[in-house]
Specification:
The structure is a single chain. With 362 residues, the protein is an alpha/beta fold. 34% of the residues lie in helices and 15% in strands. Strands 1, 2, 3, 4, 5, 6, 7, 8 and 9 form a nine-stranded mixed sheet that branches. α2 links the parallel β1 and β2. α8 packs across α10 and α10 runs antiparallel to α11. The protein is globular, with a radius of gyration of 20 Å. It is found in: Golgi apparatus. It catalyses: UDP-beta-L-arabinofuranose = UDP-beta-L-arabinopyranose. This is UDP-arabinopyranose mutase. Belongs to the RGP family. One of its GO terms (molecular function) is UDP-arabinopyranose mutase activity.
């Protein structure tokens, strides 16, 4: 009887006191009801975009704090200029004000997916498993993640590399609506992703990837200061490249510092496609610019003197100003914003900074 009682007690959620869930939004968060079994034990940081006078309703029973544009301006002062407005890139403010070791960020149109057996997928639990296990960026394992149950390092894998590297980023995927750019959306308006691939891969060192911010977790202590989602949205010539920019910066810095980035599981259910014509208007400059941005990041080299994420990021900002400003003056402004972001991050993440954050909305 005692053992039956013990087995009926819910296990303590992984990293309950070490992880914040960051959600950018412009609407009521009814979608949290679906995530309640998985998210309720955790602390939420909600970053409200758009009109700060609008009241965002959060379902009962969630532990959260909410920041709108007025709060961002009050907390950061002039440095608030580095936080995008009218764009989901504002989520990175939540990364900055968090005091936890880990971050999971999700969009409000992402629902709980089901695996092929029909079981609901606890995306957060899988992200945590990905982050707590090492990565293998220096040598590819053909049996995918060697640390998963039922897998291992294959014959020929160097024993000297089997300890792996610390995992900084866990990049999850999406069933239903794929994360396509506007031209692909227009060509394939009815395409849906129905393929569930039971796989987690480490992205090899030296390889860039398109990072999507709608189902993403990372170790804030290892890579947090590099997770800046850039200048997007209102007043900017580009949108929908916020997570891409962060991903390129993060990957170059992770490669330099010997950290790992994983992609694959977990899946979420992406419920609705954004308007491809609106997306095209936001993306069209980026579609051209990325043909020069990608080679820039592919050839970027950070000096060995850069041993912290902040040092790496500031060095990268100098290279952006030096090499990408010729593409468009926007990159000159973006490079300055990268420096402002690091200044603001360091200011909020020093001793005695917490008093500045209290906003009475929890």
């Amino acid at each position: 009887m005692a053992s039956a009682e013990a087995s009926s007690i819910a296990p303590t959620p992984l990293l309950k006191d070490e992880l914040d869930i960051v959600i950018p939004t412009i609407r009521n968060l009814d979608f949290l009801e679906m995530w309640r079994p998985f998210f309720q034990p955790y602390h939420l940081i909600i970053v409200q975009d758009g009109d700060p006078s609008k009241v965002i309703k959060v379902p009962e029973g969630f532990d959260y704090e909410l920041y709108n544009r007025n709060d961002i301006n009050r907390i950061l002062g002039p440095k608030a200029s580095c936080i995008s407005f009218k764009d989901s890139a504002c989520r990175c403010f939540g990364y900055m004000v968090s005091k936890k070791k880990y971050i999971y960020t999700i969009d409000d149109d992402c629902f709980v997916a089901k695996d092929p057996s029909g079981k609901s997928i606890n995306a957060l639990e899988q992200h945590i498993k990905n982050l707590l296990c090492p990565s293998t960026p220096h040598f590819f394992n053909t049996l995918y993640d060697p640390y998963r149950e039922g897998a291992d390092f294959v014959r020929g894998y160097p024993f000297s590399l089997r300890e792996g590297a610390k995992t900084a980023v866990s990049h999850g995927l999406w069933l239903n609506i794929p994360d396509y750019d506007a031209p692909t959306q227009l060509v394939k308006p009815r395409e849906r992703n129905t393929r569930y691939v039971d796989m987690v891969l480490t992205i090899p060192k030296g390889t860039l990837f398109p990072m999507c911010g709608m189902n993403l977790a990372f170790d804030r202590e290892l890579i947090g200061p590099a997770m800046y989602f850039g200048l997007m949205g209102d007043g900017q010539p580009i949108g929908r490249y916020d997570d891409m920019w962060a991903g390129w910066c993060v990957k170059v810095i992770c490669d330099h510092l010997g950290l790992g980035v994983k992609t694959g599981l977990p899946y979420i259910w992406h419920s609705k496609a954004s308007n491809p014509f609106v997306n095209l208007k936001k993306e069209y400059k980026g579609i051209f610019w990325q043909e020069e941005i990608i080679p820039f990041f592919q050839s970027a080299v950070l000096p060995k003197e850069c041993t912290s994420v902040q040092q790496c990021y500031l060095e990268l900002s100098k290279q952006v100003k030096e090499k990408l400003s010729k593409v468009d003056p926007y990159f000159d402004k973006l490079a300055d914003a990268m420096v402002t972001w690091i200044d603001a991050w360091d200011e909020l993440n020093t001793e005695g900074a917490s008093a500045k954050l209290s906003n009475g909305k929890a």
